[in-house]
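User: Second chain of the day. Same drill as before.
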Amino acid sequence: KPSTPQEKVTILIIDDDEHILRTFAEYLSVKDYIVEMAKTGAEAIEKKNLAKKVKESIEYNPMAEALRKGK
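Assistant: Same format as last time:
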């Protein structure tokens, strides 16, 4: 179970049933996970691609790199 913001894990739940999505999302949120939901495979791929782009922009951001190094 994650204990700090740096350790939080994001979980993507994919299901076309809204009740199942919300049930799992609520349970995992209580367990301190970040939860993303998608109703279709296409929506899940879109969310994954967006997350990848955000992560890459953070990883290759010179200012973020300087902050990580304490400069």
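The radius of gyration is 15 Å.

User: Great, on to the next one.
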